[in-house]
Amino acid sequence: MPITSPKLPKQLIKGIDINRDFLTCLEEDESLEAIHYSNQALEYQNYRQLEIRAAIFDHIYFDHFELNNGYFLDVVLDSCNLSNAHLNNSLLRRVVFKDCKLVGVDFNECSFDQVRFENCLMTMASFAQFATKGLLFESCDLGNASFLEASLKKVSFQTCKLIQAEFLHASLMNVDLSNSEIDGITLTLDDLKGAIVRPSQALSLSRLLGLQIKDE
């Protein structure tokens, strides 16, 4: 699935103090734009409804980050730690997460438009009830992640680990799982209809759904 890359200006302002800048934007109801932060730690704060546009975050530690109803446009996050962050009801458009740690991150009810996760650790992440116009997971570990009641129509998984992930009430129609690891996933027969899997996965899934396989 082709995903449109973030559109960034040729020159970005070097961000000196990420905590000061985030608080200023929060207090003055401004957006954070055209800036590059590197090797900093963002202290805990609830940054509700903050807008981030045309920005790069490189090796940033987001300490228990909370951004409900946020807006990310043309953003790159490279080698960042957002474990246990809460980004509920946020809109992400043309955003890339690369080599990030996202253990237990909460993306519930988010909207994804041209978003790519590359080589990210995302165990126990939650993507319940999200909407998407283009979402790619590439070489990500999504073990025990939850896609409860999610719309997966324009979602692509490429060489991902989906071990014991939850797909209850999330239709996998036309979703290609053939090059991903799906041992122990949780779903129903209706959820599985139309999914694309390889023969060995089909055998494993049949047992998961309660069928008894008898050798000829």
Could you characterize the architecture of this molecule?
The protein is an alpha/beta fold and about 220 residues long. The chain has a single domain (about 30-210), classed as Pectate Lyase C-like (3 Solenoid), CATH 2.160.20. Helices cover about 10% and strands about 25% of the residues. Strands 1, 2, 3, 4, 5, 6, 7, 8 and 9 form a nine-stranded parallel beta sheet that branches. Helix 1 (about 20-30) links the parallel strand 1 (about 15) and strand 2 (about 30-40). The protein is elongated, with a radius of gyration of 18 Å. It starts with 12 loop residues before the first strand and ends in an 8-residue tail after the last helix. About 40% of the residues are buried.
Nutshell version of this structure?
The chain is of the alpha/beta class.
Class by helix and strand content? alpha/beta
Instruction: Give the uncertain stretches in residue-range form.
Output: none
> Beta fraction of the residues?
25-35%
Briefly, what CATH class? Mainly Beta
State the distance separating the first and last CA atoms.
39 Å
Tell me, briefly, the overall form.
elongated
CATH architecture identity: 3 Solenoid
- Gyration radius over CA: 18 Å
Give the helix tally.
3
Order of helices and strands: EHEEEEEEEEHH
* Mean pLDDT value: 92
The number of domains is 1
